[in-house]
Amino acid sequence: MILPALALLAAFSAHAAPLPAGFVRLADVDPTIRQDIRYAGLGNFLQREVDGYEAPVCILTAPAAKALSGVQKAMTAEGLTLIVFDCYRPARAVADMVRWTRQGGPPDPQWYPKVERGDLIAEGYVGELSSHSRGSTVDLAVAELDKTSPAHSACGATDARTLDFGTGFDCFDSASETAHRTMLLSAMRAAGFRNYAREWWHFTLADEPFPKQRFDFPVTAD
């Protein structure tokens, strides 16, 4: 039949579309960095795939990817590795999160144990605009290079198998403030990233190439 064939071709073309100028897939710059892209699956605070994530792939601006690779080299020298949870985030994904938040609901013991869903924007945990859409922000953690750490988080992502950072990724609670995560903070600062103090995992390249521009192309594989 012709229609299924055309649909298959269209799907292939969408995934093969080139990235905008200045953007790269992280695996093309540093394939040693582990990727666990949470919003492309179910293991996130929405508990579903988020709009705009067509593949579990980290896309960044070229300067951000290069800087992150420098951090990875320092980590691997210590027997560690970076794990990225989110990188470039399409504007449509941000809008999806905002719509979901405004639907309201009670606290969630895993993801936002002390805040009602409708208050996540006011409390600074979900942004109506996100630096991720500029392409130079990354959410990440650190794991041991040669073995899997046990799951240990009572709040946020529970199966990332990272070092113990006190909470998991996307724990929307005061316990996630950067506080004592000095190793990761120091390594990222040395590479030119700045941290969002409410979230130990969230870093933006200080000298980002698109400081006032947000993008909305989908996250795709090669």
Can you walk me through this structure?
The strands form two sheets. The protein has a five-stranded mixed beta sheet with strand order 2-4-5-7-6, with helices on one face. The protein is 25% helix and 14% strand. It is an alpha+beta fold and 222 residues long. The chain is built from five helices and seven strands; from the N terminus they run H-E-H-E-E-H-E-H-E-H-E-E.
Compact description:
The chain has 222 residues and is α+β, with helices and mostly antiparallel strands.
The helix/strand series, from N terminus to C terminus, equals HEHEEHEHEHEE
Helical content class: 10-25%
The radius of gyration over CA amounts to: 17 Å
Class from helix and strand fractions: alpha+beta
* Tally of individual helices: 5
Blueprint of the fold:
Layout: H1 2-16, E1 23-25, H2 26-29, E2 34-35, E3 59-61, H3 62-76, E4 80-86, H4 91-102, E5 137-144, H5 182-190, E6 193-195, E7 202-205
